[in-house]
Amino acid sequence: NIAVNFVKEAIKTGYQIVVVDGGSSDEFKSHLADLGVYVQTEQQRGLSPSRRQAFAEVSSIPGVEVICWTEPEKISFVRDCLPQAAIPIITGVADIVVPKRDEQGLTTYPYDQIYAENKTNNVWMDVLRAHHLLPKDSKDFDFCFGPRLFKNTPEVKEVFMKAFDFSKRGDLALDKIIDPELWPDASLL
User: Fold this and answer.
1) Apex CA 143: angle with CA 22 and CA 150, to 5°?
2) Of the listed ranges 80-89, 105-114, 147-156, 175-184, the one predicted with least confidence
3) Of 1, 23, 142, 144, whose CB count within 10 A is highest?
4) What pLDDT shows up at residue 115?
């Protein structure tokens, strides 16, 4: 099981794990708890509310300086890259780290996914630069990769705890189906 292997690797490496669960079996949740995971029952449906719940829970664990969210399939990131990604936060150089895959890492994905993720990343960077949120010569972010790290302080955590709303534009069909709370990155910048 990918999730169990991820948890075992993370705990072996010395990390605290918080899982907000929205419907797994009691047996699975018990197994995670036996491995040392803080398992919390999802209080509000949706990816973004669940992430905010996990952030609130993990930020209250004594000694946690850096909060990282990632997906269970990112075992190699946790094992090989997480310590390096956390260094800018621990040393006070950064408050937020958005890791980026190298070109070789991208080649492990299907062509259509590589194309879509590169296009999405380019659009995000164009928007950030056009609105002067990043300098024109800034390095590109890899928004599609997934893992994010941030400093466990109230000021920085607040950025990730904000719930977003979607302004309805009338009686459009789109208005009936859009709910930012269901989006995985609605709690991102």
Assistant:
1) 70
2) 175-184
3) 142
4) 92
The DSSP 8-state label assigned to residue 134 in this structure reads S
The token duo for 140 is 């590109």
- Return the closest-CA partner of residue 185 out of 143, 125, 157: 143
Distance CA 5, CA 34 (A): 14
Neighbouring-strand partners of residue 56: none
Q: What is the longest distance spanned by two Cα atoms in the chain?
A: 52
Cβ of 22: how many Cβ atoms within 10 Å? 13
| Crossing angle of the two packed helices 26-35 and 2-13, in degrees rounded to 10 | 20
With 0-12 CB in 10 A as exposed, 13-18 as middle and 19+ as buried, what is 150? buried
Q: Dihedral angle at the C-alpha atoms of 64, 16, 50, 87, nearest 10 degrees?
A: 50
Buried-exposed string 55-84: b where 16+ CB fall within 10 A, e elsewhere:
bbbbbeeeeeebbbbbeeebbebbeebbee
pLDDT for 148-160, tens place per residue? Answer: 999 999 999 998 8
Q: Work out the angle at residue 96's Cα, subtended by the Cα atoms of residues 79 and 100, and round it to the nearest 5 degrees.
A: 50
- Share above pLDDT 70 across residues of the chain, in percent, rounded to a whole number: 89
Angle of helix 154-161 relative to helix 47-59, nearest 10 degrees, comes to 160
8 A C-beta contact, residue 187 and residue 150 = no
